[in-house]
């Protein structure tokens, strides 16, 4: 995903190395071709070097394994991992270093299964060595980028007070006169400010010269992962319409994955249901009518995590006494959401999307939070962009922020954003982030 320029420019945001960066680092860190090229060389040489240190292992490899298919699988996995990192790391609220291991684990797993399914002889030690080498190289490059590379963006029509509130991930420099200082890689401006003809001509010249010019609000969206609605005219609902093409593709993926997962999910749900019934009286499956796609109600299924004899508010509070001991763990690891795979198979939900709210709570939010109903433009999901950043929320202020996350997901609806949510969901499940 790239930020949207006001007028199409020929280049994307350039990353500016600091003057202190060594010459070799300066060249390598700003070029994806160099990063990938060095990675492929290391993946080819390092495992062979390790083989040479162990004669017995080297002999076994030479006599028993055809290394060429393993090399091809390793190179393909590195290229796939590199492409995935490029597409995911530019998304908001992302730490590039934290994505390296899961991204390459996924790409090398794909390479392994391709060779396994095709029954091609596989050099597993060599493949593992390539995986470790790729992870090490990209992690080293990530650390060096954080140390030596920092983007510098010029601001036009923005006051110092407004600039101080912008993300610290970017070095912002307010332009006092219509001239582009050395080192500025892009310009962001507020179209609602009263720009003189002189500044308007300057921005036009930048675009014609290939310097990216961005709407400041769009740039903030890319840095915060949230889309805010204001009274300005740029808040057109057409800008939030999700990709209809990807909606169809995603629906096919949802159904296929749900059907494949259902047998395994059914076994887990059956086992946990027995434990729930043993701990407290009441049904194991909790059914609740929730607001669905395009505002249509549907019955959402969850594993019961609360005592049935206790009353309380419509939402779960911090340390809620209604939650059972087993329920606390089910909520922490999101196991209670597994029955919703059936909702996905029925077409009522998706694996990824805004979390569905109970009808009463959704109506309450619609009365108090502007544009709340627009989150129903896509199918609700088992996990989502807001869920992995906020967790479970109930207060109106938090609901407004949640809506901004949901709007971002709808506006930048894409395969790579879904991939990032999957990775963040894994982190959420392992850490129990946001559970109540």
Automatic annotation (TrEMBL):
InterPro entries: Bact_transf
Cross-referenced Pfam families: Bac_transf
Signal peptide bounds: none
GO molecular function, one term: phosphotransferase activity, for other substituted phosphate groups
Transmembrane portions of the chain: 34-53, 65-85, 97-118, 124-141, 252-276
Annotated Bacterial sugar transferase domain residues: 250-430
Keywords per UniProt: Exopolysaccharide synthesis, Membrane, Transferase, Transmembrane, Transmembrane helix
A single GO BP: polysaccharide biosynthetic process
PANTHER family hit by this protein: COLANIC BIOSYNTHESIS UDP-GLUCOSE LIPID CARRIER TRANSFERASE, UNDECAPRENYL-PHOSPHATE N-ACETYLGALACTOSAMINYL 1-PHOSPHATE TRANSFERASE-RELATED
Family to which this protein belongs: Belongs to the bacterial sugar transferase family.
Protein name, per record: Sugar transferase
Organism from which the protein derives: Novosphingobium subterraneum
């Amino acid at each position: 995903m790239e930020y949207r320029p006001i007028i199409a420019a020929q280049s994307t945001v350039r990353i500016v190395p600091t003057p202190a960066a060594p010459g070799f680092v300066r060249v390598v860190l700003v070029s994806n071709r160099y990063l990938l090229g060095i990675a492929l060389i290391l993946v080819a040489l390092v495992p062979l070097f390790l083989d040479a240190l162990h004669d017995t292992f080297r002999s076994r490899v030479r006599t028993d394994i055809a290394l060429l298919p393993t090399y091809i699988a390793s190179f393909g996995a590195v290229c796939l991992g590199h492409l995935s990192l490029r597409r995911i790391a530019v998304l908001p609220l992302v730490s590039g270093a934290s994505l390296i291991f899961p991204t390459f684990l996924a790409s090398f797993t794909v390479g392994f299964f391709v060779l396994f399914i095709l029954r091609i002889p596989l050099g597993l030690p060599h493949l593992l060595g390539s995986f470790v080498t790729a992870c090490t190289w990209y992690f080293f490059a990530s650390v060096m980028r954080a140390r030596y590379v920092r983007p510098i963006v010029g601001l036009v029509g923005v006051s110092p007070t407004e600039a101080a509130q912008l993300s610290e991930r970017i070095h912002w420099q307010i332009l006092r006169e219509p001239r582009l200082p050395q080192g500025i890689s892009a310009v962001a401006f507020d179209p609602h400010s009263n720009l003189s003809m002189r500044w308007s001509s300057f921005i036009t010249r930048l675009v014609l010269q290939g310097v990216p010019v961005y709407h400041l609000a769009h740039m903030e969206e890319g840095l915060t992962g949230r889309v805010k609605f204001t009274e300005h005219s740029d808040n057109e609902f057409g800008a939030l319409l999700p990709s209809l093409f990807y909606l169809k593709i995603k629906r096919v993926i949802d159904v296929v994955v749900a059907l494949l997962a259902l047998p395994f999910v059914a076994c887990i749900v059956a086992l946990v249901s027995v434990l729930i019934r043993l701990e407290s009286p009441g049904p194991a499956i909790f059914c609740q009518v929730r607001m669905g796609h395009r505002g249509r109600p549907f019955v959402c299924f969850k594993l019961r995590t609360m005592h049935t004899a206790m009353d309380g508010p419509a939402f779960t509070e911090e340390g809620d006494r209604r939650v059972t001991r087993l329920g606390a763990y089910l909520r922490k690891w999101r196991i209670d959401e597994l029955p919703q795979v059936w909702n996905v198979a029925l077409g009522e939900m998706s694996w990824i999307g805004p979390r569905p709210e109970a009808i009463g709570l959704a109506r309450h939010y619609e009365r108090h939070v502007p544009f709340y109903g627009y989150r129903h433009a896509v199918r609700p999901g088992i996990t989502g962009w807001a869920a992995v950043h906020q967790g479970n929320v109930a207060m109106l202020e938090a609901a407004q922020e949640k809506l901004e996350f949901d709007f971002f997901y709808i506006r930048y609806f894409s395969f790579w954003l879904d991939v990032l949510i999957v990775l963040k969901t894994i982190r959420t499940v392992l850490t129990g982030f946001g559970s109540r």
